[in-house]
Amino acid sequence: MSTEPAIVTEALTRRFGDLVAVDQVNLRVDAGQFFGFLGPNGAGKSTMIKMLTGLLAPSSGSARILGLDLTRHSVEVKASIGVVPEGLALFGRLTGAEYLNFAGRMYGLDRETAAQRTKELLEFMQLADRPKSLITDYSHGMQKKLAMAAAVIHGPKILFLDEPFEGVDAIAAGTLKSMLQRMIARGATIFLTSHVLEIVERLCSHVAIISKGKLVAQGSLEELRAGIEARQGAAASDGKLTLEQIFLDIVGGSRETERELTWLG
């Protein structure tokens, strides 16, 4: 496995007018990590992924992906990564097989390899039984699985996933998790955002938390857990802290639960 970090950012910032969506973020993701990137709604997660994948230029700061400066080597970086964005942006008038073949060819696979991997991915994702159906007729869960298949068809070194399990049933989620764990076992790096903290806790070894555009925590789950337990004192924790408890402690969510609606009694 490469010793070069998969992702490094220095003071990465993105402004939209007066709004600072991502503010001076210094992030490091080592190669081979299953990395969870967490934050409340509007914290800057999707903006961060768009910058790291070359879909959005930073206002200032820099990012290195697989040792390459993203600004100067955007084509090389994009050829080595896979992305499942929040908005899937699939070509609805194609069949699943046509779309995957197209994705494979765009990533530089020869026709035979693209066709073989398309066949394997459709079977693995349980999408092979509707070969003539257009993507626009797929359910949301089927579209998610197809987007995931297109993102991995070229064997990316880093896979960026923005809410990959949203709207996906338990069976499909199990299929996706199995594939992601196989990728990690083969040395790939996965950068995941999700609001389902139980999934992140089961899958990810390391996490970072962003709040109001600023990176407020970064490290392994054990490191973050130990930091909070040390600050609270051993008696403050009844057993091992969950990722949800860690997250709420860091972003101050526990205080939000104290608010009440007067008309609910």
Using brief descriptors, characterize the structure shown.
6-stranded mixed sheet, 4-stranded antiparallel sheet, alpha/beta, single chain, Rossmann fold, 265 residues, globular
Briefly say what this structure is.
With 265 residues, the protein is of the alpha/beta class. The chain contains ten helices and ten strands.
Describe the fold and architecture.
The protein is globular and about 60 Å long. It has a single domain, classed as P-loop containing nucleotide triphosphate hydrolases (Rossmann fold, 3-Layer(aba) Sandwich), CATH 3.40.50.300. It is α/β, with parallel strands linked by helices and 265 residues long. The chain has ten helices and ten strands. The strands form two sheets. The chain has a six-stranded mixed beta sheet, with helices on both faces. Strands 2-1-4-5 form a four-stranded antiparallel beta sheet, with helices on one face. It is 38% helix and 23% strand.
DSSP strand content: 15-25%
Q: Could you tell me the CATH topology label.
A: Rossmann fold
State Rg: 20 Å
Main sheet properties = 6 strands, mixed
Total number of helical segments?
10
* Apparent shape: globular
> How many domains make up the 3D coordinates?
1
CATH class, named Alpha Beta
